[in-house]
Each structure stands twice: as C-alpha cells, then as structure tokens.
Amino acid sequence: MSARIHNICIDCRDTYALAGFWAQVFDCPRQSDDFPGDPEAMLLPPGGPEVLFLAVPEGKEVKNRLHLDLEPADRTRDEEVARLVAIGATRVADRRRADGSGWVVLADPEGNEFCVLRSAAERPATAG
C-alpha cells in the first residue's frame, strides 16, 4: 500500500490574496466559498493536488523547506517567468545555464520560493 498527496498546504498571512496569486499561476479559480479574511482558501489546479492556504500569525523568515517546481505547459520558461513576474512574483535567483538548462527561482507575494523549469518542448529529446 502507498500514500498519495491529497493537498499541498502553504502557510501565509492573507489566504485570499495569496490564493488569488496562485490561482493566476495555475489558471484555476479560487473556491466559491473563499472570501477575504477566511482562515483558509483552496485551489484545485487541473492535474494536480489541491493547494490549501492556511492563515498563520507569523511571517515567513527563512528559506522554504519545501517548494514547487513549475513546468510551463504552453509557453517557454522565459515567457512563463515574465508572466509570473507581471502578476506579482519576485525574481530571487537565475540558475539558467548557457546550454538552456537550469531554472529561475521566484517568490510569491509572501516570499515563498518556487522554481520555473524549461517546458517539455524546450528540453532536448533524449534516447530512451
């Protein structure tokens, strides 16, 4: 027997606002019963586990112990990074390499880091 991920929880100050940012990232709406000031908010991204935002009193102070790696579905890594920065992400580090590999580290509006990898179309075909 094994386990599966039911949801990914993100501690935050403003559940509604942060869920709104990630709703744009994942192109899915907040749940209809989520409102400003709620102690939790939920997203149901297509093809992935639920993402649950939980209100906590303390702010983020150190690097995440767990983060998301995102793979663009219908655009390049650089186009996705530009889109995410335009909706409120902050660039933390650029780990792209000259050969096109690597990733870009971004942070959401509350400082939670996540990475943007190359899309499947950008990765070279490998013999398998």
Describe the overall structure.
The protein is of the alpha/beta class and 128 residues long. It contains two helices and seven strands, in the order βαβββαβββ. The strands form two sheets. A four-stranded mixed sheet has the order 4-7-6-5, with helices on one face. The protein has a three-stranded mixed sheet with strand order 1-3-2, covered by helices on one side. The protein is globular. The mean pLDDT is 93.
Summary tags:
3-stranded mixed β-sheet, 128 residues, alpha/beta, 2,3-Dihydroxybiphenyl 1,2-Dioxygenase, domain 1, 2 helices
- The coarse silhouette is globular
CATH topology call of the largest domain:
2,3-Dihydroxybiphenyl 1,2-Dioxygenase, domain 1
Strand order of the largest sheet: 4-7-6-5
**Total DSSP E strands:** 7
Rg, Å, rounded: 16 Å
Low-confidence stretches: none
What percent of the residues sit in helical stretches (DSSP H or I)? 10-25%
CATH C-level class of the largest domain is Alpha Beta
Order of helices and strands: EHEEEHEEE
What is the CA-CA span between the terminal residues? 29 Å
Strand proportion: 25-35%
Query: What is the level-2 CATH architecture name of the largest domain?
Result: Roll
Largest sheet properties? 4 strands, mixed
Q: What's the domain count?
A: 2
Number of helical stretches of at least 4 residues: 2
| CATH homologous superfamily (4th level) name of the largest domain | 2,3-Dihydroxybiphenyl 1,2-Dioxygenase, domain 1
